[in-house]
Amino acid sequence: MPASLQAVGWARRPLPFLERCQRRYGDIFTLRVRHSGTWVILADPADVKRVFTAPPESLGVGEANTLLGPVLGPRSVMLLEEPAHMTRRRLMLPPFHGQRMEHAADMIARATRAEIARWPDARPFELWPRMQDITLEVVMSVVFGPLRTEPLIRLRELLRTLTQRMNDPRRLTLMALLGPRSMVADDDFRAAITLVETAVLQEVRRRRAQPPHPERPDIASMLAHARYEDGSPMTPQDLRDELVTLLLDGPTSSSLAWVLERLLRHPHK
Question: Which of 161, 170, 235, 250 is deepest in the core (most CB within 10 A)?
Fold first, then answer.
């Protein structure tokens, strides 16, 4: 299949497209997506585990995520190579350990149950916007904590607008055909992401102006006061790229669909 058609198939209906490829070619197959190079897709969990447990120096990080560069920014942890990648990861790992992750799991379950309780009975409805509401609630709580100030409420709405634009099938198809720069060239997209960037950095500045609080588990406060090994703080570009990465990664994907599946199958867990 021509690379342009592979790009359209992946952009329009990625999961059915990948499932068809798996049925035809097996658990390891190759896509050649226009403007994105060659992708090797692994479907066997054992192979996926080998990737995630491989030595950092054996696999590139940024090389695999070039499609995201114009959106996430050049200083995102998803685009940095070693040794800068590991240095950034050390700054970001504390919120993802132990009791903090257990708290996040409970919060995800509460947000999911609260959203499901609002679903209509006995009639069809669109699932995607409701899954997006779950992810926005979860991501905002993890990144900024449970506080819902006026600036954070506005930021949530700005994120909703931005992710709706990014998930529009026509824009995804154009990005697949023309490359990620086509999205950045879109005036509406640039305006939407600029508003998000401004709101995110204003919130970080507010937290940086306050003394650090060891009991505040939110990522924004932690990054606002984080220091590299030489004692220097994260730059505005670093903060922008990492927080935009965290805020957009969940709402622009179906990564929390497994939560819904687990709750529906095991409602008491």
Answer: 250
Q: Which residues contact 197 (CB under 8 A, 6 or more apart)?
A: 240, 244
The pTM (predicted TM-score) of the whole model is 0.69
In Å, what is the CA distance from 154 to each residue of 151, 191, 257? 5, 15, 25
Q: Which residue has the higher pLDDT, 264 or 214?
A: 214
pLDDT of 258: 37
**Separation of first and last alpha carbons in the chain:** 45
Asked whether 35 and 180 are in contact (CB, 8 A), the reply is yes
Residue 145 DSSP symbol: -
Q: Which two tokens stand for residue 164?
A: 């709706």
Provide the pairing of β-strand 28-33 with 37-42: antiparallel
The distance from CA 263 to its chain's CA centroid, rounded to whole angstroms, is 22
How many CB atoms are located within 10 Å of the residue 117 CB? 7
d(CA 264, CA 14): 24
How far, in Å, CA of 207 to CA of 205, rounded? 5
Cite the DSSP H helix spans in the chain. 3-12, 14-25, 45-52, 69-72, 84-92, 98-117, 128-144, 150-166, 169-178, 181-184, 187-208, 219-224, 236-249, 257-265
Q: Which residue has the tokens 């991501």?
A: 139
Mean pLDDT of 6-12: 81
pLDDT (tens digit, 9 = 90+) per residue, 103-124? 777 888 888 999 999 998 889 9
